[in-house]
Each structure stands twice: as structure tokens, then as C-alpha cells.
Amino acid sequence: MPDYGQSLSFGSFVTPTNADPHRPVALAQASEAAGLDLVTFQDHPYQPSFHDTWTLLTWVAASTSSITVSGNVLNLPLRQPAVLARSAASLDLLSDGRFAMGLGAGGFWDAIGAMGGRKLTPGQGVTALGEAIEIMRGIWDAGNRMPLRHDGEYYRVSGAKRGPKPAHDIPIWLGAYKPRMLKLTGRTADGWLPSLAYLQPGDLQRGNATIDEAALAAGREPSEIRRLLNIAPVADTARWIDQLTAFALEDGMSAFILASDDESMLHVFGEEIAPAVREAVARERAGRGTVAAEARRGAIALSLRRDGIDYDAIPPSLAASAVEPGDRGHADLRHNYLRSGDPGLVLLPSTPAEVADALGYARAQDVPLGVRSGGHGVSGRSTNDGGVVIDLRRFRAIEPLDGAKVRIGVGATWGEVAAALAPRGLAISSGDYGGVGVGGLATTGGIGLLGRKYGLTIDHVTAADLVTADGRILRASAEENADLFWGLRGAGGNLGVVTAVEIDAMRLGNVVYSQMAFDATDTVGMLERWGAAVEASPRELTSFLILPPIRGGQQPVAQLMTVFAGDDTDEAIRALERLADAAPLLDHKAYLLPYSGVVQPADRHHQGGGDPVSRTGLVDHLDVATASAFSNLARSGAAHFLQVRATGGAAHDLAPDATAYPHRHQNFLLTALGASHERLDPIWDAVVAPHTNGLYLSFDTDQRPERLVDAFGVNLPRLREVKATWDPDNVFSANFPIR
């Protein structure tokens, strides 16, 4: 059989005996110390002399730091698949992505029956295993908003909630020997895990052929499926090395798992055998010109490639992690929070130099370019159809600097930032949702729930690291590249790919977080009274209001989110009471908690949505005329989501030309989402726009040229000069491009 070009890994197969309860754990730790990649345990729940394998896997994961843990293989008939999937996701999250799912269809059916399991024939067991895999992957698909349903012959799931999403794409390896199991492996699994002791001469070749045929029939590339092999020690070291090298080069095996409870043998395997086999295989592959599995593309995958992209020219630094249509990871990367997308290539750099490589490559392609930090932007410009997306999720470091300053990678989310800063008594005002990426908010504005007290997020950015359109890696601050630094704070998407920002955090203990529900029947009066109460409140209070579409015959209920940035509960209560007078109060809950409890970490597993359009407008006050206009929009049916954000207070402390973002006197931001610009724009332009003065760029999808004036106002001429200096070719043209 051909060499599939898969990277090699080495592991141990430890007996989970409980005679000396801690012995299997010690052997797992020895495996890690020996440099092995994987430790596995057999699973026989009916065997009283063995530990429960799942409990053991959990204990071992907590007792190690780098080695992957797996069953070899888990006994599916005694482990309900939906629960097993949740358990696996939890263990993967707790271990930072160190779990693999080794599964078996079942055996020893009398013992399984004695434990209360359902006795199946071998054929039934294979069918049941296929159903279980579908259910488990459905549970892990946490971004899918539809409840999970599976009406199988052996397993049924009726509307189960999905999640949690594992820390990484958990591989499913099947212990398979007979044709039906081998075909199932080829169709659906990520790996084949037989034991050499159970194989006859030629079984590896026959098994690979069956798996490959099934994979191709299912539209899969055979090299995607890892070939693992449980092996026994060999006394002659040289012979052992030759044997494993031959298994890799001639039989396509790429993971070797040693069945041994001898600690010294584990060290020999990890420290002597594994390096020698890796070296021998690498040397032979170099001579043969073997293509790595990660770079192989089957006929079906090749057919999904997009015109205008030279896939063969992807820089070597990015090729291994690049994601194309047809790759399993493409589904997790194609969309953003609200916007559907179908990019032809997603690049995942992890260093500024790789960002420069990605940008240089993207410039040479004849397709759109998107740059993504968190992918939560309402405007959806971080994805595209058929183009290249540079995804910065690997830039997630959160590094404390001197005092209250912190350096943050743009791929981190604000929920992660809040959680990291809370133990130090620090916070950064950052929107209202923890799943928002740092990069977009910290270069556009940042109207958040601490805004009236601390201003916009960009007001506290003191420096930025970025890659410019021509591939230079620079730092921008008040002292270095000052014109670029000015432009990045408000128009960053036009000027470069920011990889990290330095921000002065705020000293902040607990806050009061309030959630109110109003009867919004008197919509105009409610908006006017709420707006007046916000403006009259101390700066510590910031409030956002969500207004539903108002339909005849239905009672409209407005939702209010408010933060009082301080732990003086008496003053907070007085301020909240003024808000509560805005309309009949239907419900109110208030909490004293850290800011990290308000902006919590959130999964970024985005599945797109209804592809809404949005319009925004900044207003000085919610006077009767403005409130009436927004109320009329809510009653028009043209918008399905409407929000008002308070953005006064400290945001006014800077001059309009202090940053590229110029809006330093308005007190509120109006936002509306609708199904199409054809429906939303006419009423917005005619009814709402006359009362507005400026827009908030990241929430707006109307890119007519006149919107540039609304977005940047008096700063637009200077921004044109900065754009001409740093991006004269308009490489960054997806986000309100400045000509």
C-alpha cells in the first residue's frame, strides 16, 4: 500500500488494573516523560479488576500536561452516545484539547448483557456504532442552532441541545477488523485502530484497501484517515525500528501504540525507537518526494477549489493549516456571527511574519480579501464568497504589562479578556457580548456597557502592532508612526492587519448589572423618558435598550441592559429607579458581580444567519421627534431588531480629531437590522436619518459613498491622506474603503 504521508505519532497502551490503583496513572506519566504523544486504556466495564476507563482517563488528563488520552477502545454498548459526547467535550475542554475518541462496536456480549447492555449481533453493532458517531458529532456541533434529532434503529435523540463544543476537533478512531467495520471507518471515522496481534499477513493491506474504497465513495481523501496500530515490544532494537519503518512506508501506518506496563520499556520506546523511526521515515520520504497528508487533495476536494486563487502558491508557512472548501474545518470558518460566507481559502497565521506572508499571497490573488479577529461583526465583512480570509484567531495572548496596561492579541475575545483581568481588579469597556473579537472593536470604536464612565475602547488603546499593506511589520503609537496610530483608532480596517494592541485598563471592582423589561406600548414616551434619565444619571451608569418590532395586537416589550460601574449599591439603586420610571416595569433583576460576569466568554462557532442588513445613526438626544422616528421604524415592519445604546459621558472628553472616530458629542446610537436594504433603507433615509448625525461603522452595511462622510465626518480629509500613505492600492477595501 502507498505511504499516506501522515505525520508519525507514538503512544502507550496501559492496562487499567486497579490492584495498585495509581499504577496506571504512573505509567501514563512515564509515557509523557518519555516523550510519547498518546496514552490509551482498554475499556471493559464488566471487568471488576479494572478501573472504570472513563474515570481513569479523566484522572490521567488531570495528572499530565501534554499527552493525549484515549480509550483503546471505549465500549459503546455500555456508554450512551449523547452522554459520552458531552463527557468527551468536557474532558477535551478541561485538558486543552488532549482527548481522542477510540471506539468499538462491542464484544463480549454476554458480559455486556450482564451489565444491563443490549446484546447485539456483530452486524447490528456496526449499525449502532454508525448511529452513535452521527449523534456524537451532532452534540459537538454547538454552533448549530437547531436541536439535535436522530431517530435510529438503536439510538434516538429527540430535540437534544447541542454542545459544548470541544476544545479541538475530537478524532474518532475505530477498532475495526471485518469488512463492515472497515467500510464504516472509511465513510465516517478519522482513524483505524487495530491490534497487530489480531491481524493475519496481508490484513493491513486488505484493510487499507477497503477503507480507501469506502472513503473515496463517500467523497473523502483516504489520507485524511489516520492509521494507528497497537503493537507489542520487540527485543531486538534495530529490528523493531526496521519493522515500524516498514509499517509506515509500506502499509501506511502512522501511529504506533505500545502495549506494555513496563516503565523502562516505555522510555526505550519514546526516547530511542520513536526518534529513530521518525528519522528513517523522514529520510525515505524526502528521497521519494512523498507529499504530506495535510497537503494532499483528492479529486472531489480539488473540484471545490475556486477560480482566482492559486492554491499551489500558498506560502509554506501557512500551507499546513490552510483550510479550503471541502475540508472539515471549513464549516467552522466560513461564516461569521450573523453573515453567511463561503470563502475559497482561509489562512490561519500565528505570527506577524506569517500574517505578512498571508497578506502578500492574498494580494496576488484575483479575489476579495477578508480579515477576521472574532467574526462577530454585525456588518459581516470578515467573510466573503470565493475569496481569501485571513483569520487571526491564533493571536489570543493576554499579557499584563506595567501598571494597568495589558497587551492583547486581536484574536482573543472580550469575554476572555474580562475573565483574565478580573482577578487583578481591572476591566476594559468592550461592547456587550463576550464573543466579540478584540481586533474589530479596538480599531473601530467600542461603544460598551462601561462607556459613559470610561469612554470608547479605542480611547484607551496606547499602541498597536500591525502588518501594513506592503508587508511591513510595524508598531504604531503616539511616538511611532503617529499618523497611522491616529487612523487605526476608528478606521483600522482600512489601514493594516493589526495583530496586537496595548490598552490601559481601568481599575474596577464589582459592578451592578441590571436587566429590566418594559411595557413599550407608549414607545415614544418610553424612549424619551429613558433617554432623559440616562443623560441625567451619573457617568457610572450606561444603558442599552432593545426594542422589538411593534405589531398590531401584540404588547411590545422592551429589554434593558444597564451597568452601574461601581459597587455603591445605594447610588446604583437610585440611578436604576430613575430608569424604571421610563415605562411600566414588567420585570427587573439586578446583580452585584465582576464585569467578567457581564461580558462572559462565549463560543465563536459561528453558523451565519439570515444575512441581515443594518443601519445605524448617532443622535444627540432622544427628544420627541427622534423617539417618534425610531418608533415609526419599529412599527413599519422593515426592521426585525432595533437597539439604542447610550454613548455619552467620558466619550465626550476627547476632541473630535483626537482619533479617527469623530463622534464626540452624541449621546445615543440607534441601530436597526432588517431583511434587505430595499425595505430598510427607504424608511430609514426618510424617517430616521434626518435626526441622526453620524454612523457607527461596524454596525452598518450601507456602503454608499456618502456614508463615509457620516462615518468619519470632519476627519475624512485627513484619513484620505493617511490611507494614501499606508494603503495607496486600497488592499483593505472590504470595510467602508476610503478612496
From TrEMBL:
Keywords of this entry: FAD, Flavoprotein, Oxidoreductase
GO molecular function term, any single one: oxidoreductase activity, acting on paired donors, with incorporation or reduction of molecular oxygen
InterPro entries linked: BBE (IPR012951), FAD-bd_PCMH (IPR016166), FAD-bd_PCMH-like_sf (IPR036318), FAD-bd_PCMH_sub1 (IPR016167), FAD-bd_PCMH_sub2 (IPR016169), FAD-linked_Oxidoreductase (IPR050416), Luciferase-like_dom (IPR011251), Luciferase-like_sf (IPR036661)
Limits of the FAD-binding PCMH-type domain: 339-508
Gene3D superfamilies on file: 3.30.465.10, 3.40.462.20, Luciferase-like domain (3.20.20.30), Uridine Diphospho-n-acetylenolpyruvylglucosamine Reductase, domain 2 (3.30.43.10)
Cofactor or coenzyme needed: FAD
Similarity annotation: Belongs to the oxygen-dependent FAD-linked oxidoreductase family.
Protein name: LLM class flavin-dependent oxidoreductase
Organism from which the protein derives: Microbacterium stercoris
